[in-house]
Design goal:
There is one protein chain. This protein is of the alpha/beta class. Helix 1 (29-38) crosses helix 2, helix 5 (151-166) packs parallel to helix 6 (192-203) and helix 10 (296-307) packs parallel to helix 11 (334-346). It has 2 domains: 26-79, DNA polymerase, domain 1 (Orthogonal Bundle), CATH 1.10.150.530; 84-372, Aldolase class I (TIM Barrel, Alpha-Beta Barrel), CATH 3.20.20. It has 12 helices and 11 strands. Strands 1-2-3-4-7-8-9-10-11 form a 9-stranded mixed beta sheet, with helices on one face.
Length: 373
């Protein structure tokens, strides 16, 4: 028997505690030129600053030695305000998983998680402080929504992680940041403008951006259908990840309250449309919760609904739930998890259990912020 749905209390537009100061990463290349000229500098200074920020991954005036000292100190003071202050850092997996709690300019708290694997590196970033989607099993969802992050506040999470890797601070030697996932705190598509601004900064060739591949960037959503359709038209081939968590409306409306606005069939149709428009295979995220959504018949229902929309367009990632302290929600039994995966694969659905790194350091985003609150 499914639990009774919780009341739908979504906040689609974040209340703001204050607007973050203007930052270089909030600007287009043209706006950067205008900004430096307004400060009395030559236009080429914008390219120099971009090279330091996006190529050398620094906002430290002392390292910008190709600029006159007085000039660089003034430009950094005006265009590179400190947006993130590290409050706490926790390590797992021999130091190859690092979770950081950041305080923003207004003392709002967000988290990011950097993970190094044998052949790749991945950063999970936050796009909002808190979240308005109210999913009951999610630590961030229980915090509620404080505000949206700016583009630069998200980009700074990325730059900081990339610099840490470049400096060899993560075991394994100096390396590059390969993958970026918007799966931290917040609903990315509810902060669409800033998230896409970040994506554009990340994929722009150096020195105007970080030069990452769009195919190595994943944007997740609980199913905001209009924004999913808008994303399909951007012309930037990021991977779309749909946090589904249940194949039936009765249960999904409990686990993901936004389902009362856009149903399972509607979000799956929008996900399929993303594949049709972009050619990019969609990921279905499915947190396996003991005795709640892990029944074999639900795996069958999910497989049938995905196959009804065609073959080869989707990949399912069952995720063993990382429970939050004091929560009634917990991970599925391993045998139940194995049966769920086997049933999906029997339907011909590519299925891979998501690696659950950082469980010993409260790896699910929102847990450190919740502790501080």
């Amino acid at each position: 028997m499914a639990a009774q749905p919780t009341p739908l209390t979504l906040t689609m537009t974040a209340p703001r505690r204050g607007k973050p100061p203007r930052h270089f990463a909030d600007m287009t290349p043209e706006e950067r030129v205008l900004a430096v000229t307004e400060l009395g500098e030559k236009p080429f200074r914008a390219k120099q600053l971009a090279t330091h920020y996006f190529t050398h991954l620094t906002r430290d005036a002392d390292l910008m030695t190709d600029l006159p000292k007085a000039t660089r100190e003034r430009l950094v003071a005006e265009l590179f305000p400190a947006l993130l202050t590290q409050s706490r850092s926790m390590e797992a997996d021999g130091g190859t998983t690092v979770k950081t709690l950041w305080h923003l300019f207004d003392q709002v708290k967000v988290e990011s998680v950097l993970m190094r694997y044998t052949n790749r590196t991945t950063l999970c970033v936050s796009s909002q402080a808190g979240c308005g989607m109210a999913c009951p099993f999610c630590a961030t969802g229980q915090l509620g929504l404080t505000r949206n992050l700016s583009t630069a506040e998200i980009v700074e999470q990325v730059r900081s992680a990339a610099r840490s890797l470049a400096d060899g601070e993560i075991p394994g030697g100096a390396t590059r940041l390969n993958n970026l996932v918007f799966m931290g705190m917040g609903e990315p598509l509810a902060n669409y403008k800033a998230v896409m601004g970040t994506v554009r900064q990340c994929v722009a060739p150096t020195p105007d951006g970080l030069g990452m591949s769009a195919r190595n960037i994943t944007v997740s959503t609980v199913g905001l259908v209009p924004a999913m359709n808008k994303l399909s038209k951007e012309g930037i081939p990021v991977t779309l990840a749909l946090s589904l968590h249940a194949p039936d409306d009765e249960l999904r409306s409990t686990l993901v309250p936004v389902n009362t606005r856009w149903s399972v069939d509607e979000v799956l149709d929008a996900a399929r449309n993303y594949f049709v428009v972009t050619g990019r295979r969609v990921s279905i995220e499915y947190a396996l919760i003991r005795d709640m959504n892990d029944q074999g018949w639900r795996a069958d229902m999910l497989g049938e609904k995905l196959n009804a929309r065609g073959k080869g367009w989707v990949h399912v990632n069952p995720i063993p739930l990382n429970p939050t302290p004091g929560s009634i929600w917990t991970a599925s039994d391993p045998a139940v998890e194995a049966e769920f995966v086997a049933r999906l694969r029997a339907h011909g659905i590519p299925t891979t259990i998501r690696d659950t790194r950082g469980s010993d350091i409260d790896g699910a985003c929102g847990q450190l912020a919740a502790e501080e609150e």
